[in-house]
Design a protein that fits this description.
The protein is an alpha+beta fold. It contains 24 helices and 30 strands. Strands 1, 2, 3, 4, 5, 6, 7, 8, 9, 11, 12, 13 and 14 form a 13-stranded antiparallel beta sheet that branches.
Length: 901
């Protein structure tokens, strides 16, 4: 019985498919036109566009939309076989918008619409060209293209590509009956017309667009109704609830058949009929063009706008959202400003030079670049203050995502022509790092001559200049060209200088894991396991980082676990391995299952003697904030050597789904400080922590800081070199007061694009974000009490400014939103080396607020009486302050240090 029922169901299904196929075949082979040949048809056209809140909660009074209505007379003035020429005339046009009072509508009659018809040429029954009057503005021409696109109907069940007002789109038809067809459009070319975008997805935007066109036909195949419904959801990738939902509806509804006789054009071909119109008309393709009027800025100068933001740009607002907001709001106008105006601004506001160079770096135009260089650079006569401002400009420029090519060419010429003197080595370093970063951000083709010249310059410099090898390696890190991997690996594996080997591995770590081959993995394993020779501990941990990024399989993970039980006495490295594995297991469920399975199989590893923490090295990740705020995490790595921090980093990561981007990274490195704290490795009742095996040679006492902004590695800051310089700081107390280490406002989100709707309306979407960072710190050091205290404070002000405008000549919708927040973080470290070595680190984040302000507006314009309506909203999210737990070893150390306090 069940088998018979299943057979019947299969037969019914096959029968339905056959009938539908027969219906489609009959319909497709019929020569019926949507507009019958030689007739006049009367339609009503309605175009509605709305801006909606993403949460979908809005009442009638909260609506922001416009509704354009007109009567459409369609006359078939020439036809032959499957070719046809339609004359379209619009009349009695009007536009409506919601009033300021509930259930009230504001209507305006459009009297300025040109009283001239336009024409649509159809070939094989499909619209191919629009013939419009030469004086048509872009917005109305796009509307005419939208009407023509509604007449594009094919009968096919397969996915195919069509060209209409939205450009080339993937389409799929669903023939529901002989009189009902639904067309679905996806991946249209004119839905993603990007003027600029950020390569890091977490700092970019998210867009979801789709369109459906419903056709209702008579039994003879004539058009009764064509209705397009489209949605465009536009959000920040890192915050999906910030943005807008744009809906468009375009409906062509048949009203009646015209009573007037349609006079036919007396021509033998369609081409001849079109040619007869070309005295006052032009032929246009079906694909729309962007109406640039939608993105025009109000008439004002950068100087005028800058004056209104002078207070927010003051130095006291560095590290606050107010300065980041002012910065983002100034950028659109700054990007269309000419060199002379920039020079005037630099002259008249010299007291704000620090903030101005940050702004000009984000502008990324050759005018802004020339103005900055001309104002500050005087060759060998350049003052120290001007050199510092030039470096600051270059550091801001390095974060740019779409600089003009002329900027890169000029910077490269500087290096080739030796315009920078030997005494200006810091400027030369910054030029090199900025040039390498901009080359990567520009996304040149592999065979681009400028990319090849810059790559060769860096490799030649590395080969010929052993003194500045780390400078060129750092530039290769910023370039991240896969063709340089082998040279960097050569430096990592063969260099006898530990700092070069470590720098090369740092550069390699910045590459995506997909850049490496199996042969590269073997070389990284050789470094970590020291198969051929001994390596610096930092080189080994960096090699491990790369190996883990390459996603080890079960066998490779087992080798790492077996290493933990080996007789290697470098317990800090073992601690690093274990903490890194545990951290990855917390983040990734797949890795966690593999990690647990590997431990279960290894009794010689899975015991307290091996897994108990013996070192002070710390690797951890902590959630800083999450929805409804931004999803941000902190990645902290503190590599300890002989009880002293050897290399540490704190990195802030912004997440968007599975994507993440580094927004800021602070690294600190030291060498040779073990001699100052002694080798007291025994404390009260604690196990002795064996010192790491020392490499041959005595290290110079050194300390410095490395800063990376959105993946752009800046020139390092050196605190001191040599014990004499260090003791000068200790006895002079020069570091005991809070000292700025990095102060800047840099670009974050940077996106601009256009979307052409089915109605011909142009949508302009721009997102600009900025981060203002104030990083400062202080150090206290007592040789008498044998202790030290370090405090690092980072104050960050973040702002994102979004602008969406959509409309046509007579109506426009605008949404302006801002996101502001001020995340802060403090790290305090206390070191006691009076009796043994005790290190306590405390990481804290105070309470923070995120504010989302939104203004949506509707404008009726170029009508007898203009109308405007604004809707404002504001949402604030509060995140409580937190003190982050690091690990159990740190807790024990803190309890011992502060036991008597």
């Amino acid at each position: 019985m069940q088998q018979r029922r299943q057979t019947n169901q299969n037969n019914n299904s096959s029968g339905m498919k056959f009938c539908l196929l027969l219906l489609v075949t009959c319909f497709a082979t019929s020569s019926a036109a949507l507009i019958p040949h030689g007739t006049q048809q009367l339609f009503e056209l309605q175009s509605k566009v709305s801006l909606e809140q993403l949460n979908g909660e809005q009442s009638t009074s909260d609506e922001v939309n416009y509704n354009f209505e007109t009567k459409v007379t369609v006359s078939s003035v020439w036809s032959k076989d499957e070719e046809q020429l339609l004359e379209i005339h619009l009349s009695e046009s009007r536009v409506r918008a919601p009033g300021k009072v509930k259930a009230q509508l504001k209507e305006r009659v459009i009297s300025s619409l040109p009283d001239r018809p336009f024409y649509i040429a159809l070939v094989k029954g499909q619209p191919e060209q629009v013939i419009a009057h030469t004086s048509r503005d872009q917005s109305l021409l796009n509307l005419e293209r939208g009407i023509a696109s509604l007449l594009q109907l094919r009968l096919s069940s397969n996915s195919e590509t069509e060209l209409d007002i939205s450009g080339h789109c993937r389409v799929k038809y669903n023939v529901k009956s002989a009189t009902s067809v639904v067309k679905t459009k996806t991946d249209c070319a004119l839905w993603d017309l990007r003027a600029s975008y950020h390569p890091e997805q977490a700092l970019s935007v998210a867009q979801h667009s789709q369109e459906q066109v419903e056709y209702e036909l008579t039994t003879a195949g004539a058009l009764l109704r064509a209705e397009s419904t489209e949605t465009h959801r536009l959000t920040l990738a890192a915050k999906p609830d910030a943005g807008s939902l744009v809906r468009g509806n375009l409906r062509l509804q048949h009203v009646a058949e015209g009573e007037q006789h349609v006079q036919q054009l007396e021509h033998s071909t369609l081409e001849a009929a079109i040619a007869s119109l070309l005295e006052w008309y032009r032929v246009f393709p079906l694909e729309a063009d962007v109406d640039g009027a939608i993105s025009e800025l109000k008439e004002q100068t950068l100087q005028e706008q800058f004056v209104r933001h002078v207070e927010q740009l003051n130095a006291k607002h560095v590290g606050k959202s107010s300065q980041a907001l002012a910065y983002a709001q100034l950028l659109p106008l700054a990007r269309i400003t000419k060199q002379a105006q920039f020079e005037e601004l630099l002259e008249s506001h010299s007291q704000l030079a620090d903030q101005l160079v940050d702004l000009l770096g984000a502008v990324q135009t050759f005018d802004a670049h020339n103005a900055t260089v001309a104002h500050f650079f005087r060759g060998s006569a350049t003052t120290r203050e001007s050199l510092q401002l030039l470096e600051k400009y270059l550091q801001s420029l390095a974060v740019a995502t779409h600089p003009q090519r002329e900027i890169l060419e000029q910077l490269f010429n500087w290096l080739q022509q030796d315009r920078i003197t030997a005494k200006q080595s810091h400027l030369r370093d910054s030029v090199l790092q900025t040039l390498a970063t901009l080359t990567r951000q520009s996304g040149f083709e592999v065979n681009d001559p400028l990319l090849q010249q810059i790559r060769d310059h860096l490799l030649d410099g590395l080969a010929s200049d052993s003194k500045d090898a780390t400078l060129y390696i750092r530039a290769l890190q910023n370039l991240r060209d896969p063709l340089t991997i082998d040279e960097l690996l050569k430096q990592a594996t063969q260099s006898e200088q530990h700092k070069i080997s470590v720098a090369a591995l740092q550069a390699l770590k910045s590459f995506p894991a997909s850049s490496f081959a199996t042969s590269h993995r073997l070389q990284f394993e050789s470094i970590f396991y020291q198969r051929r020779r001994r390596f610096d501990s930092s080189a080994r941990t960096l090699a491990l980082d790369v190996l883990l990024e390459m996603r080890p399989n079960a066998e490779q993970l087992g080798q790492l676990l077996d290493y933990l039980a080996s007789n290697d006495r470098q317990f800090e490295i073992k601690t690093y391995v274990l903490q890194k594995l545990r951290m990855l297991a917390e983040i990734c469920p797949r890795f966690r299952a593999m990690f647990r399975a590997a431990l279960v199989q290894r009794d010689h590893v899975n015991n307290y003697n091996v897994l108990g923490q013996k070192g002070l090295t710390t690797v951890l990740t902590r959630q800083l904030s999450q929805s409804p705020a931004f999803n941000e995490t902190l990645l902290s790595t503190q590599e300890v050597y002989q009880g002293i921090l050897k290399r540490g980093s704190v990195e802030f990561l912004l997440h968007a789904g599975r994507d993440r981007a580094s927004s800021f990274k602070l690294g600190v490195y030291t060498a040779g400080l073990g001699s100052l704290v002694g080798d007291g490795d025994v404390d009260d009742g604690n196990d002795r922590i064996p010192a790491d095996d020392e490499l041959e040679g005595e290290e110079t006492v050194t300390a410095g800081m490395e800063i990376s902004v959105q993946g752009a590695q800046l020139r390092p800051l050196i605190f001191f070199t040599g014990q004499t310089e260090l003791m000068g700081h200790v006895w002079g107390g020069s570091a005991s007061d809070s000292t700025p280490a990095y102060q800047a406002t840099t670009l974050a989100q940077d996106h601009e694009q256009y979307i052409v709707l089915a109605s011909g309306a142009t949508l302009h979407w721009r997102v600009l974000g900025a981060r203002s960072v104030d990083l400062n710190g202080k150090v206290g050091f007592s040789l008498w009490n044998r202790n030290a205290q370090t405090e690092i404070q980072q104050n960050t002000g973040s702002a994102v400014v979004g602008h969406i405008a959509v409309g046509f000549t007579y109506a426009k919708l605008v949404q302006d939103f801002t996101l502001t927040h001020e995340p802060k973080l403090s790290l305090q470290a206390d070191l006691d080396f009076y009796s043994g070595i005790k290190l306590c680190m405390q990481l804290q984040r105070p309470e923070q607020l995120l504010t989302y302000s939104n203004v949506r507006s509707v404008y009726l314009q170029q009508v007898e009486k203009a109308y405007v309506k604004h809707l404002r909203s504001k949402i604030t999210h509060k995140s409580a302050g937190r003190t982050f737990a690091l690990n159990q070893k740190n807790n024990e150390m803190c309890n011992m240090i502060f036991a008597n306090s």
